[in-house]
């Protein structure tokens, strides 16, 4: 018979029975208060988890929230590298993730060992790494960035300094163009953002005259070239809220539409279509592994917990702290 840790490693969450008829939202709020816990959620989570969160944000906003919380328990509703980052920042707090198998294709594409080997092939280069990576990768990085602050941080690196950018080649190419820096790019990409179909998006725009395509910079270059606006998750939200257009085709994970509709209820929001003609959505299967049931079980039993070796945590903390310091002026 498997023990709890073996079960978590295989299944990702505790397969405990939930009492029939239990009001999960009410119970989660009760447990939060009882345990002095805080729920941090990414914009790509399901609508019901977003509504239960104490703080909703993008990667930079969530890192700041994790840094500033005085709660004893942090329940991170996102993917594994996000919860891991919260633990790196908060070594004395208990950090929980509803499903340990809520991973990330981009993080999986770049290990710390492989990145170090790549770095050794380019002597004198500093490594700027997108926050979408695991602790081992962060530990061998010189700078950590998010899509919100990457351009700002790269601008602070001396112009004569060679830069390796990992792991997202699309974001890296976009930043090279924006900053004028000829960066050495790691060959990685996000399975959600690389799946958008420019042909199908063109059809969506044709069917909605006056609509604007807005895109996250992890999207592939042809999609970005067609976009009226390119920005981080939070920047896309702000643009939809403030721009005069009435209709938007949104090229990022469709979980963002929930918050967009709350901020701009009068506007028409259309998720950009992927290449797969059998699907008209752009969901991240990893983000959506977290459910309200798993959130309840996680908070009730305080499992799964993010555990990390102290030496690795300290090594990964340095570039994260550098990021937070260098992006203090960004709201």
Give an account of the 3D structure.
With 331 residues, the protein is of the alpha/beta class. The chain contains 16 helices and twelve strands. It has helices at residues 4-11, 24-35, 47-52, 59-68, 80-89, 105-108, 112-120, 135-139, 150-154, 169-179, 198-207, 221-226, 233-242, 256-263, 292-301, 310-326, and strands spanning 37-42, 55-57, 73-77, 94-96, 126-130, 143-145, 163-166, 184-185, 212-215, 229-230, 247-251, 268-271. The chain has a four-stranded parallel β-sheet, sandwiched between helices. A four-stranded parallel β-sheet has the order 6-5-7-8. Helix 14 (256-263) links the parallel strand 11 and strand 12. Helix 2 (24-35) packs parallel to helix 15, helix 4 (59-68) packs parallel to helix 5 (80-89) and helix 5 (80-89) packs across helix 16. The mean pLDDT is 95.
Question: What's the layout of helices and strands?
Answer:
Elements: H1 4-11, H2 24-35, E1 37-42, H3 47-52, E2 55-57, H4 59-68, E3 73-77, H5 80-89, E4 94-96, H6 105-108, H7 112-120, E5 126-130, H8 135-139, E6 143-145, H9 150-154, E7 163-166, H10 169-179, E8 184-185, H11 198-207, E9 212-215, H12 221-226, E10 229-230, H13 233-242, E11 247-251, H14 256-263, E12 268-271, H15 292-301, H16 310-326
Parallel strand pairs: 1-2, 1-3, 3-4, 5-6, 5-7, 7-8, 9-10, 9-11, 11-12
In short:
The chain has 331 residues and is of the alpha/beta class. Helices cover 43% and strands 14% of the residues.
Main attributes of the structure:
single chain, 331 residues, alpha/beta, 4-stranded parallel sheet, 43% helix, globular
């Amino acid at each position: 018979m498997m023990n709890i840790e073996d079960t978590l490693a295989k299944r990702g969450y505790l397969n405990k029975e939930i009492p029939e008829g239990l009001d999960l939202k009410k119970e989660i709020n009760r447990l939060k208060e009882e345990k002095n816990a805080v729920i941090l959620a990414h914009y790509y989570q399901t609508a019901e988890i977003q509504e239960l969160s104490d703080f909703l944000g993008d990667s930079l906003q969530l890192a700041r929230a994790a840094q500033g919380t005085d709660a004893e328990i942090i329940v991170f509703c996102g993917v594994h590298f996000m919860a891991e980052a919260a633990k790196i920042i908060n070594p004395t707090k208990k950090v929980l993730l509803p499903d340990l198998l809520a991973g990330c294709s981009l993080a999986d594409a770049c290990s710390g060992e492989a990145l170090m080997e790549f770095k050794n092939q380019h002597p004198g280069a500093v490594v700027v790494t997108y926050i979408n990576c695991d602790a081992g990768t962060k530990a061998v990085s010189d700078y950590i960035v998010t899509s919100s602050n990457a351009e700002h941080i790269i601008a602070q690196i001396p112009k004569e300094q060679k830069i390796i950018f990992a792991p997202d080649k699309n974001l890296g190419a976009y930043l090279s163009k924006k900053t004028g820096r000829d960066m050495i790019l790691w060959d990685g990409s996000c399975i959600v953002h690389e799946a958008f179909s420019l042909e199908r998006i063109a059809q969506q725009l044709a069917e909605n005259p006056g609509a604007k395509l807005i895109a996250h910079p992890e999207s592939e270059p042809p999609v970005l070239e067609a976009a009226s606006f390119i920005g981080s998750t939070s920047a896309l939200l702000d643009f939809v809220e403030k721009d005069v257009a009435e209709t938007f085709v949104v090229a990022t994970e469709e979980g963002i539409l929930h918050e967009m509709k709350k901020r701009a209820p009068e506007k028409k929001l259309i998720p950009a279509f992927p290449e797969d003609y059998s699907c008209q959505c752009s969901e991240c299967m990893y983000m959506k592994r977290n459910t309200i049931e798993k959130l309840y079980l996680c908070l009730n039993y305080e499992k799964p917990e993010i555990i990390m070796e102290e030496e690795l945590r300290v090594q990964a903390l340095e570039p994260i702290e550098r990021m937070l310091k260098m992006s203090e002026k960004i709201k």
